[in-house]
Amino acid sequence: MDHFYFDHNATAPLCAQALETAVECLREVYGNASSIHFFGQAAKERLERARRQVARLIQAQPKEIVFTSGGTEADNLAILGAVRSSKRPDRHVITTAIEHPAVLNTCAELEREQAAVTYLPAGPDGVVDPEDVGRALRPGTVLVSVMHANNETGVVQPLKEISELTRRAGVLLHSDGVQAAGRIPVNVRELGVDFYTLSGHKICAPKGVGALFARAGAGFEPVTYGGHHERDRRPGTENVPGIAAFGRAAEVVEQELAAQSARIAALRDRLETAILALVSDSFVNGGRAERLPNTTNIRFDDVSGEALVIALDLEGFAVSTGSACSSGAVEPSHVLTAMGLSPEQARASLRFSLGRCNTAEQVDALAGAVVRAVERLRAIAPARLAHV
């Protein structure tokens, strides 16, 4: 049986160019990038080439890119680093109820350190109202953290409008851009962000590598301690093969962004149209808002989302109920409940996230499998009975 992958927001397959780069570096570029001899400088050259490639993807300066082990570390570095470096006695942070756990749990740690955190709601469309951000600002506010695009719904947040408010207030703005970079155009200058998080494995690079854009002049301190790597911002010997592959993947997705985004958006719309036409009581969560071109989150009333994931997997289709970082959680999606869905509605929702490898034939086959699986599940085990 063939298997088809529709879970690209969890992770993306390694692209051929990134794989080739990683293997080449593992085999040939084995020096420490901090060493001054020939082998070290060869590694340093690959490191700085990747820095330029990643910077170009988001229209940043290379010196503003800090390489990390992934998006989670980059979120921690931005949030903890900015807030801990603040001299304000009553440190206050504003974030949203729909953030990734890498942001929410970092903010929870700040609360344990006696910082105050405000968690803003999202509207029924999954969009955070910039006016809510403005109303939440206060003299002690150090940082605002609002994701660029949601990992479960794909809904894009109004960062430009939010940054206008934070700039006027003299407050730093961080955005988790893990899902957005490489899928929609990103210009950190136009967005007005001070910190922006990226992850390699979301854009067809290896796992275990990411980056933080830290605007020149934006104050923050390291959260780990060691040597003088990454301009004293993140110590530790750099993962040159992973970083080089990340840079190459960033270059590939940047070059193909317009064409791939249009192609994948058409496939996403094709999938939504087919499912909504053929499956009764199905609804797109956040469907009226601006979204990533590759993401749709669909609710199937009276169906268990986890049962539907398993049913589709048995037919050869990999999909998700939401964030892979929350796999195994019995609680309904915090993103969907923050948008106003009931726990039962959230549990009845599936995320389909498309990528470079998907085709129209695969989309049509997936839609057919969804129709069959929903009909079976509604017939034999209506989800509504499980919660009575």
Overview in brief:
The protein is an alpha/beta fold and 388 residues long. Helix content is 44%, strand content 13%. A 7-stranded mixed sheet has the order 2-8-7-6-5-3-4, sandwiched between helices. Strands 9-10-12 form a 3-stranded antiparallel sheet. A two-stranded parallel ribbon has the order 1-11.
Instruction: Indicate the CATH class of the largest domain.
Output: Alpha Beta
General shape: globular
Termini Cα gap: 37 Å
Q: Report the strand count.
A: 12
Q: Looking at CATH, which topology of the largest domain would you report? A: Aspartate Aminotransferase, domain 2
Radius of gyration: 21 Å
Alpha-beta classification: alpha/beta
Strand content: 5-15%
Describe the structure.
By secondary structure, the chain is of the alpha/beta class. The protein has two domains: 4-11 and 257-386, Aspartate Aminotransferase, domain 1 (Alpha-Beta Complex); 16-252, 3-Layer(aba) Sandwich (Aspartate Aminotransferase, domain 2). Helices cover 44% and strands 13% of the residues. The protein has helices at 16-28, 38-57, 71-84, 101-112, 130-136, 159-169, 188-191, 229-232, 240-278, 305-314, 334-338, 343-347, 360-380, 383-386; strands spanning 4-5, 65-68, 92-96, 116-120, 141-145, 172-176, 195-199, 210-214, 282-284, 295-300, 317-318, 349-353. The strands form three sheets. A seven-stranded mixed beta sheet has the order 2-8-7-6-5-3-4, sandwiched between helices. Helix 2 runs parallel beside helix 9 (240-278), helix 9 (240-278) packs across helix 13 and helix 10 crosses helix 13 (360-380). The longest helix is centred in the last third of the chain and has 39 residues, at 240-278. It is globular, with a radius of gyration of 21 Å. The two termini are 37 Å apart. Mean pLDDT is 95; it is low at 383-388.
